[in-house]
Amino acid sequence: MRARKPDHRARIPFVFLAAFAAAVGAGCSDDDKDSDGDEPSGDASIDQMDDSASADATIDQSADSSMSDGAPPEDAGKEGASDAESSEDAEPDAWLGEDAAPDAEVPDGESPDVGSDVLAQDCFDKVKNGTETDVDCGGGVCAACKDGLHCQIAADCVTGHACDGATSTCVECTGNDNCPLGKLCNLNEKKCTIDGCIPTQHECPAPEACCQGQCKVVQTDLANCGACGNACLDVANAQEACAGGVCTYSCDAAWEDCDSSGQNGCEASLATSLLNCGACGNVCSFAHAKAKCAGGQCGILSCDTGFGNCNHLASDGCETNIVTSTLNCGACDNFCALPNANPVCANATCGILTCKTGFANCNQQVPDGCEVNITSDKSNCGTCGNHCPTRPNASATCMAATCGIACLTGYANCNVNTFDGCEVNTATNASHCGACNNACPSTQVCVSSKCQCPVGMTMCSSKCVNISTDPANCGGCGKLCKAGYTCSGGNCWPP
Description:
Layout: H1 14-27, H2 42-69, H3 74-79, H4 81-90, H5 116-120, E1 162-164, E2 169-171, E3 183-186, E4 191-195, E5 209-211, E6 214-216, E7 238-243, E8 246-251, E9 255-256, E10 268-269, E11 289-294, E12 297-303, E13 307-308, E14 320-321, E15 341-346, E16 349-355, E17 359-360, E18 372-373, E19 394-399, E20 402-407, E21 411-412, E22 424-425, E23 445-447, E24 450-452, E25 458-460, E26 463-465, E27 486-488, E28 491-493
Antiparallel strand pairs: 1-2, 3-4, 5-6, 7-8, 9-10, 11-12, 13-14, 15-16, 17-18, 19-20, 21-22, 23-24, 25-26, 27-28
Helix pairs in contact: 1-2, 1-4
């Protein structure tokens, strides 16, 4: 505990007050009063004060002598006892003095001694005096000295600490006995800074045991489980532990002791083992496939030759025969789609089974399927290689898989015979003017596919006439010359 910090009023040691009161009391007897019982006169008071001053000097000298001897005057102890006790009750910290040190250390459970030793030394005056071994500490009266302060014996220092004989200063330790269990004294630093122990001499705090000079909790220490030197063995893929002094282990994440044998530890990788995938005993196996275990999940590593996992489901393995499937020919999603053909997948290769009606695979290439429309192709008309011939005044055609001809402009196949082509020139043929069987009148000719009168002739009343000489149409249609007149140069002339 710490002494309470005193206030700053003037302090007078109670012994001095007691001595002073006794002396004054002796000088003020009943004889000093006057016969009327009144107080002494002013002169008498002055004389009395002089006597008191002399008494004070005597008391001071006596007090100094008493304090130097370390004990209070006997008279002060007797006559001033009641006053001293009254003063102590009223101000219990008055004895501490004006300059008392509020931070001086007082051992727990103890109070500063207020006996004669305190008169000889003030434990809070910030001065080394009396029996103190350092300022305001040590000597058996004042508080214990902290480390680094002067001492004579260990009792001058904080409880448990030591007095270093070489330096006469308080230190934490001069040997292991000054240190708590589990700590050893660093003799260079004089401090309990070394973790350790000495069997049978300086042991460890419970529940630790001293193992090879170190304190170990044998209930939990892997190297000293249950007893010193009993080390827990290293277990594969596991975390070893010492619990209650017994070695145990727990498997690492994604590892398990599936064969229940402690000899090989946690031997099964739940992340990759085909026999223990995700859990002990979970075997990975799939139809037409090699299995794998990844991340604790069974899956397909690869398909057997000729098979594919085309539905992307592991549950049915590699379900598709890619050797014959036209939807997955040679590989998943390789669809045999051939133009104008009915496909087939043979030996994992797409081929043409048959061509659709009206088409043929004339180039014998699979990728473009049945590329020829034999109903309209002039080079493959009706069948591959059937080339339609070219005829006169016509171009070859293929319609409904049959060769034919298409007449050039101004020509027609009027005899319906393809072998002679388009034999009629409808631009000039009067019998087929502009089209087959379109015959011109006998007096007309066919010009540019149209029936018309020959040059120098004019159509009048559906027949061709020479208006230069025709008396019925002399100079123009319907201009009739008089009877006997002739028409010449388009004019009627008299006979």
